[in-house]
Task: structure prediction
Amino acid sequence: MDTFYEFVLLTIGLAGLWFGTELTIRGAVRVADRLGISEFVIGVAILSVGSDLPELAIAVDGALMTAAGGDASDVIVGTSLGSYLGQLGFVLGFVAFFQTLALEQRTVWRHGAALIAALLLLGLFGYDGDVSRLEGALMVIAYAGYFFAMFAGGSTFSAEEGATSFRKLTGAWLLLGAGLVVVVVGAELTVSSAIDLAKALDVSEAFVSIVLIGMGTSLPELSISLGAALKNRESMSVGNLIGSNVFDTLVPVGVAAAISTVRFDRGLLTYELPYLLLLTIVVMFFFWHRRGIQKSEAIIVLLMYFGYVAVKFVTSIS
Result:
């Protein structure tokens, strides 16, 4: 009964994260549209960051819980890595199964290098068993550098136009604020119920975070990327996923560590991170060598995702 109750609470928390994210993204898009920000920046920058609010909210809530004397480190790191796996493995594979995804080779090299560098940086900082406050701050700074390098110059509005539009956006700002509130509440419910569910099932918090929460928090990216691909905006679809994964690798763990040192489980260094590196290299190879991910490549990516989940499930209960 306790297990069922905690699973229901986890489901409600994930639903709250999804609904709050939807409200937040809609508000952000309205604001960006009124301020004259380009569609590329809306899709790749605003939507990728906006759809990652659940992961960030979970990380902040977990860090505050850790700072208060608890330990939500496995939830913090597991959710970030699980979201990365869900987006690059399941979401990208699922979308590519229905619509071929392609990228320019220059984009493949540029963003592929950013993904690999982010994973290596996380592994480097977590190698000694924890991510310190300084290291967390450096991760956030690294993402900020990536963000401004990728998206600088995407706005087309003047300061005067922006000030005028700002005053006309009361409804959009309220929608944005309401979404953030729902995300925060959903994050609190998700973190607490995930820890209790892991105890009830006698499995690791990392498993619950990587598989259940990681997949659940990838739902906004699935919705956005599939919708963009079906509207023949493949670059926006892939860009959203890549931008989200760079964010997930650096920002949630970085912000959480800046609040309170995050413990980094040794198993993540020997299994999860190497597997994510392999998955990233395979996906980028398909983009580069095959000039896109078609149905056959999508099946391989999906098999890599479900293979990981199966192995993780078996090892978590053995």
Notes: Residues 58 and 187 are 5 Å apart (CA to CA). Confidence is low (pLDDT under 50) at residues 153-162.
